[in-house]
Design brief:
The chain contains nine helices and nine strands. It has 298 residues and is of the alpha/beta class. Strands 1, 2, 3, 4, 5, 6, 7, 8 and 9 form a nine-stranded parallel β-sheet that branches. Helix 4 links the parallel strand 2 and strand 3. It is globular and about 120 Å long.
């Protein structure tokens, strides 16, 4: 009697199952093929992974503001500085020979004007700040009178900054009187920061006077090259997360030439020159107590 070929049947069944499985993998169902093609459209190939050219994040503009002090003696340099294609501000000394004429010229040129108020320095009286100066031996009444007279002497002003004042700016009680007068006339105050012990910020804050403080003197060291270095190199060092850097210079031909030379450098580096009014309310305000005098009193 012949035995049933059980082993052969098992082998044949395994072969049939393998053929069926292979056929299912090779012959895809229409819906599977559609799904696969749809996925191909949604998923970019290696060539399509870059949707467009890579672009660098825009450089954050570093704003600076410039004040030119000591205006009122020489109209020729005022005219040259007024022609700068920038919103430079000008601080005019009261009672100087051309104070009023300079104010009118600058106002016509669309420039912002400040009263450059003479104040007592540590070298007073040997170092004399100028006619109408505020001194620490004055009474409150005398200070009020001088502030009102000086404000009236220079037309078109929107604010005040101190000329010298390394001693007066340390006298909080007398500064308080000045700030009360400025508040009444809606004038802001810019601290030239001629002393590291200035009480300007706290006095302005108490009186509710808009305030900002100098960061850099442009031309404390004479010469075009030194001024250009401060206008460009110092700005790079002083970058402050978009907060304005306030720079103060003087009406020298070398300073004017340095500013003109700095313009294309600023443009290339994303440095924007803004008006002094735009510095007021600077969010750095509460932090600036730690900033210190960078140069001696000019």
């Amino acid at each position: 009697m012949k035995r049933f070929p059980f082993r052969a049947v098992v082998i044949i069944a395994a072969l049939i199952a393998a053929v069926v499985l292979f056929a299912e993998r090779v012959v895809q169902r229409p819906e599977d093929l559609t799904s696969h093609r749809s996925l191909e459209k949604e998923t970019p190939t290696s060539k399509d992974e870059t949707i467009g050219p890579e672009t660098e994040a825009p450089v954050q503009s570093q704003p600076i503001a410039i004040i030119i002090d000591d205006i009122g003696f020489d109209l020729q340099i005022v005219r040259k500085l007024a022609s700068l294609p920038l919103p430079v501000s000008f601080a005019i000394l009261p009672y100087t020979p051309h104070a009023v004429e300079a104010a009118r010229l600058l106002h016509a040129a669309g420039k912002e004007i400040l009263l450059h108020f003479p104040m007592e320095s540590v070298g007073y009286p040997d170092v004399f700040p100028g006619e109408g100066a505020l001194t620490t031996d004055m009474t409150a009444g005398e200070i009020r009178s001088r502030v009102r007279e000086a404000v009236a002497a220079v037309p078109f002003i929107s604010g005040v900054n101190n000329h010298m004042g390394s001693r007066f700016m340390e006298d909080g009680a007398r500064l308080a009187v000045v700030m009360e007068e400025l508040k009444a006339k809606n004038l802001f105050f810019i601290d030239s920061l001629t002393t590291e012990s200035s009480r300007g910020r706290e006095s302005a804050k108490r009186a509710g006077v808009r305030f900002a403080a100098r960061d850099i003197f442009i031309d404390h060291v004479p010469g075009r090259d030194a001024a250009l270095k401060n206008l460009t190199g110092m700005v790079r060092k002083e970058r402050t997360n978009g907060w304005p850097i306030l720079m103060i210079g003087h009406p020298h031909r070398e300073t004017e030439l340095a500013i003109r030379a700095a313009i294309p450098i600023w443009q290339a580096e994303g440095i924007q020159v803004i008006s002094i009014s735009a510095c007021l309310g600077d969010p750095r305000g509460e932090k600036s107590e730690t900033r210190r005098q960078q140069q001696a009193e000019p």
